[in-house]
Amino acid sequence: MPSQAEHVRFLRVINGVFLVVVAVYAVLDEFLGPHGRTVDTILLIAMAVAATGSAGIGLFLRRKYLDQVLPILRTDPENQEALNRWRAGQIVVMVFVVTVAAIGFALRFLGASLPVVVPFYLASAGLLVWLRPSDAIS
Would the pTM count as exceeding 0.85? Predict the structure, then answer.
Protein backbone atom coordinates (compact mmCIF):
# COMPACT_ATOMS: atom_id res chain seq x y z
CA MET A 1 0.00 0.00 0.00
CA PRO A 2 1.33 3.44 -0.88
CA SER A 3 2.47 5.61 2.00
CA GLN A 4 1.54 9.23 2.53
CA ALA A 5 4.86 10.34 1.04
CA GLU A 6 4.22 8.27 -2.09
CA HIS A 7 0.77 9.85 -2.49
CA VAL A 8 2.31 13.32 -2.21
CA ARG A 9 5.03 12.43 -4.73
CA PHE A 10 2.41 11.11 -7.16
CA LEU A 11 0.35 14.29 -6.82
CA ARG A 12 3.38 16.48 -7.38
CA VAL A 13 4.05 14.65 -10.64
CA ILE A 14 0.42 15.13 -11.71
CA ASN A 15 0.65 18.81 -10.75
CA GLY A 16 3.79 19.19 -12.85
CA VAL A 17 2.12 17.48 -15.81
CA PHE A 18 -0.81 19.88 -15.56
CA LEU A 19 1.60 22.84 -15.48
CA VAL A 20 3.18 21.51 -18.67
CA VAL A 21 -0.29 21.17 -20.21
CA VAL A 22 -0.99 24.85 -19.49
CA ALA A 23 2.31 25.79 -21.17
CA VAL A 24 1.52 23.58 -24.17
CA TYR A 25 -1.89 25.26 -24.51
CA ALA A 26 -0.21 28.66 -24.53
CA VAL A 27 2.35 27.65 -27.17
CA LEU A 28 -0.01 25.65 -29.38
CA ASP A 29 -2.60 28.35 -29.68
CA GLU A 30 0.04 30.76 -30.99
CA PHE A 31 0.96 28.38 -33.80
CA LEU A 32 -2.41 26.79 -34.57
CA GLY A 33 -5.02 29.36 -33.61
CA PRO A 34 -6.62 31.76 -36.08
CA HIS A 35 -5.37 35.32 -36.01
CA GLY A 36 -7.07 38.56 -36.95
CA ARG A 37 -10.63 37.63 -36.00
CA THR A 38 -12.60 39.30 -33.24
CA VAL A 39 -14.58 37.61 -30.51
CA ASP A 40 -17.88 39.01 -29.32
CA THR A 41 -17.64 40.75 -25.95
CA ILE A 42 -20.56 38.74 -24.57
CA LEU A 43 -18.75 35.51 -25.41
CA LEU A 44 -15.60 36.78 -23.67
CA ILE A 45 -17.58 37.68 -20.58
CA ALA A 46 -19.39 34.32 -20.60
CA MET A 47 -16.11 32.43 -20.90
CA ALA A 48 -14.54 34.52 -18.12
CA VAL A 49 -17.52 33.73 -15.89
CA ALA A 50 -17.18 30.04 -16.78
CA ALA A 51 -13.45 30.11 -15.95
CA THR A 52 -14.10 31.88 -12.66
CA GLY A 53 -16.81 29.36 -11.86
CA SER A 54 -14.51 26.47 -12.66
CA ALA A 55 -11.79 27.81 -10.38
CA GLY A 56 -14.38 28.51 -7.67
CA ILE A 57 -15.81 25.00 -7.90
CA GLY A 58 -12.30 23.59 -7.68
CA LEU A 59 -11.54 25.59 -4.54
CA PHE A 60 -14.90 24.64 -3.01
CA LEU A 61 -14.31 20.96 -3.69
CA ARG A 62 -10.81 21.20 -2.27
CA ARG A 63 -12.21 22.56 0.98
CA LYS A 64 -14.95 19.91 1.02
CA TYR A 65 -12.51 17.01 0.51
CA LEU A 66 -9.98 18.39 2.98
CA ASP A 67 -12.59 18.98 5.69
CA GLN A 68 -13.63 15.35 5.40
CA VAL A 69 -10.22 13.68 5.43
CA LEU A 70 -7.86 15.93 7.38
CA PRO A 71 -9.24 14.99 10.82
CA ILE A 72 -8.73 11.32 9.93
CA LEU A 73 -5.22 11.91 8.56
CA ARG A 74 -4.20 13.89 11.65
CA THR A 75 -4.97 10.92 13.87
CA ASP A 76 -3.92 8.18 11.42
CA PRO A 77 -1.56 9.53 8.71
CA GLU A 78 -1.36 6.16 6.93
CA ASN A 79 -5.13 5.55 6.67
CA GLN A 80 -5.38 4.29 3.06
CA GLU A 81 -9.03 5.17 2.56
CA ALA A 82 -8.48 8.76 3.73
CA LEU A 83 -5.29 9.08 1.66
CA ASN A 84 -7.11 7.84 -1.44
CA ARG A 85 -9.94 10.32 -0.91
CA TRP A 86 -7.42 13.11 -0.32
CA ARG A 87 -5.57 12.17 -3.51
CA ALA A 88 -8.79 11.97 -5.55
CA GLY A 89 -9.85 15.37 -4.22
CA GLN A 90 -6.53 16.92 -5.16
CA ILE A 91 -6.75 15.54 -8.70
CA VAL A 92 -10.31 16.82 -9.14
CA VAL A 93 -9.21 20.27 -8.00
CA MET A 94 -6.31 20.29 -10.47
CA VAL A 95 -8.65 19.31 -13.30
CA PHE A 96 -10.98 22.21 -12.52
CA VAL A 97 -8.02 24.58 -12.39
CA VAL A 98 -6.64 23.38 -15.74
CA THR A 99 -10.10 23.98 -17.20
CA VAL A 100 -9.39 27.70 -16.80
CA ALA A 101 -6.47 27.36 -19.23
CA ALA A 102 -8.59 25.22 -21.57
CA ILE A 103 -11.16 28.01 -21.71
CA GLY A 104 -8.41 30.45 -22.67
CA PHE A 105 -7.25 27.99 -25.31
CA ALA A 106 -10.77 27.77 -26.73
CA LEU A 107 -11.07 31.56 -26.77
CA ARG A 108 -7.84 31.85 -28.71
CA PHE A 109 -9.14 29.40 -31.29
CA LEU A 110 -12.29 31.47 -31.57
CA GLY A 111 -10.10 34.43 -32.46
CA ALA A 112 -9.36 36.22 -29.17
CA SER A 113 -6.06 38.08 -29.07
CA LEU A 114 -3.13 36.91 -26.99
CA PRO A 115 -3.49 39.67 -24.35
CA VAL A 116 -7.07 38.49 -23.78
CA VAL A 117 -6.16 34.84 -23.15
CA VAL A 118 -2.90 35.28 -21.22
CA PRO A 119 -4.77 35.95 -17.92
CA PHE A 120 -6.50 32.58 -18.28
CA TYR A 121 -3.14 30.82 -18.60
CA LEU A 122 -1.57 32.81 -15.77
CA ALA A 123 -4.53 32.19 -13.47
CA SER A 124 -4.44 28.47 -14.15
CA ALA A 125 -0.68 28.17 -13.69
CA GLY A 126 -0.77 30.37 -10.59
CA LEU A 127 -3.50 28.28 -8.98
CA LEU A 128 -1.65 25.07 -9.80
CA VAL A 129 1.48 26.41 -8.12
CA TRP A 130 -0.47 27.76 -5.13
CA LEU A 131 -2.40 24.50 -4.67
CA ARG A 132 0.64 22.28 -5.15
CA PRO A 133 0.35 19.31 -2.79
CA SER A 134 2.86 19.50 0.00
CA ASP A 135 1.66 17.30 2.86
CA ALA A 136 -1.60 15.43 3.41
CA ILE A 137 -1.98 16.46 7.03
CA SER A 138 -1.09 20.15 6.79
Answer: yes
